[in-house]
UniProtKB/TrEMBL annotation:
This is Histidinol-phosphate aminotransferase. It catalyses: L-histidinol phosphate + 2-oxoglutarate = 3-(imidazol-4-yl)-2-oxopropyl phosphate + L-glutamate. Pathway: Amino-acid biosynthesis; L-histidine biosynthesis; L-histidine from 5-phospho-alpha-D-ribose 1-diphosphate: step 7/9. Its cofactor is pyridoxal 5'-phosphate. The keyword Transferase applies. Its EC number is 2.6.1.9. It comes from Erythrobacter mangrovi. It is an enzyme of class 2 (transferase). The modification N6-(pyridoxal phosphate)lysine is found at residue 220. The gene is hisC. InterPro entries: Aminotrans_II_pyridoxalP_BS, Aminotransferase_I/II_large, HisP_aminotrans, HistidinolP_aminotransfase, PyrdxlP-dep_Trfase, PyrdxlP-dep_Trfase_major, PyrdxlP-dep_Trfase_small. Homodimer. One of its GO terms (biological process) is L-histidine biosynthetic process. Keywords: Amino-acid biosynthesis, Aminotransferase, Histidine biosynthesis, Pyridoxal phosphate, Transferase.
Length: 366
């Protein structure tokens, strides 16, 4: 008999999620461009809402009724087909937990949100990473990875950490190629950064089919990452499954207030998208100008740029120099990406400063 509680073997194998750094190893604070937070902050309406009357002794609305109604009005979705969560991460976990377990497989692109394998391991299922095409998700390779044991396919679109995006036709082709008993989860955490008219069709698929779930978050373009609010939509039986598994009173009262206020300020989201687009484009140009030194910026539809170091300058050396200049960016050797950095799009001044560091390093290594 064991002398203490024994972890399930698949839980014991898990390494806890590691967030982006905000300090140097000796404790100096850094400008945090490692967590894809909004450099514009959040809408003034959010500050106003959170400064209003608040009664923390009462539980929040357990069903986030007003928030679901507001989300439904914005996106033309029946609120009964919406469920809110503690960030989209809780809902992604519930989706995997509801449909996969020991002996099952969960497929996702090789380079995807680092939370995905943790979600799979938590339920004792097997992680199946589909091969990439120059780091990006590839529909044919995703479908080739599906077997009779596959229960869930996770697709972050736009992708994190790469930033690439599959258009509507490709997402539809992916769905059409899946068995109907396989759940397709389209994780649209960065969808608000897409240009006007760009749409991967996830909402349409979720409205028409019984095996499609779409998740979104208020952490990125809306700028309220600290309030931890996300939502999902899909067929009634999928929403019911998530409601069975999510935490009771999972979205705090302040989170619901903040999300309602953020949702009502569409101008702030547009300004966030437009600023991100222009600053990102300039930074990509600056990186591409260093192409003869082996630097490459992959196409991004999100609020970060994935920079690959394929020459004499290594990602580790660049990471250290950027840190010395006062900035934290994301190095991802744990995702088999030691040769790259994911750099959140900050202000123009911040991105110019990082570009200057990269240029000086390249010149010194020439």
């Amino acid at each position: 008999m064991a002398d203490k509680p024994t972890l399930k073997p698949w839980i014991e194998a898990i390494h806890a999620y590691v967030p982006g750094k905000s300090k140097t190893s000796d404790g100096r604070p850094l400008v945090k461009l490692s967590a894809n937070e909004n450099p514009l902050g959040c809408s003034p309406a959010v500050h106003k809402a959170l400064a209003g009357e608040h009664q923390p002794n009462f539980y929040p609305d357990p069903d986030a009724t007003a928030l679901r109604q507001a989300i439904g009005a914005v996106h033309g979705i029946d609120p009964a087909r919406i469920v809110c969560g503690t960030g989209s991460g809780e809902l992604l976990h519930c989706a995997v937990q509801a449909f996969a377990g020991p002996g099952d497989e969960v497929v996702f692109p090789r380079y995807s949100f680092s939370l995905y394998p943790l979600l799979v391991w938590k339920v004792g299922a097997e992680v199946v990473p589909a091969e990439d095409s120059d780091y990006a998700a590839d529909v044919d390779k995703l479908l080739a990875a599906v077997t009779e044991r596959t229960r869930v396919v996770l697709l972050d679109n736009p992708n994190n950490p790469i930033g690439t995006w599959l258009p509507r036709a490709e997402v539809e082709r992916l769905h059409a190629g899946l068995p109907r008993d396989v759940l397709l989860v389209v994780d649209q955490a960065y969808a608000e950064f897409l240009e006007e008219g760009e749409d991967d069709g996830g909402f349409d698929l979720a409205a028409r089919y019984d095996n499609v779930l779409v998740t979104r978050t208020f952490s990125k373009a809306f700028g309220i990452a600290g309030e931890r609010v996300g939502w999902a939509t899909g067929a009634p039986h999928l929403v019911d499954a998530l409601n069975r598994l999510r935490g009771a009173f999972n979205v705090t009262a302040s989170g619901q207030k903040a999300a309602l206020a953020a949702l009502g300020d569409r101008d702030f989201v547009r300004r966030s998208r437009d600023a991100n687009s222009s600053i990102r484009a300039r930074f990509v140009e600056q990186v591409e100008a260093l192409g003869n030194h082996g630097l490459r910026a992959l196409p991004s539809k999100a609020n970060f740029v994935f920079v690959v170091f394929e020459g004499a300058l290594s990602a580790t050396t660049a990471l250290d120099a950027i840190s010395e200049a006062g900035y934290a960016v994301r190095h991802l050797p744990s995702q088999d990406l030691p040769q790259a950095l994911r750099i959140t799009v900050g202000t123009q001044e911040q991105m110019d400063a990082i570009a200057t560091v990269l240029r000086q390093l390249c010149e010194a290594s020439a």
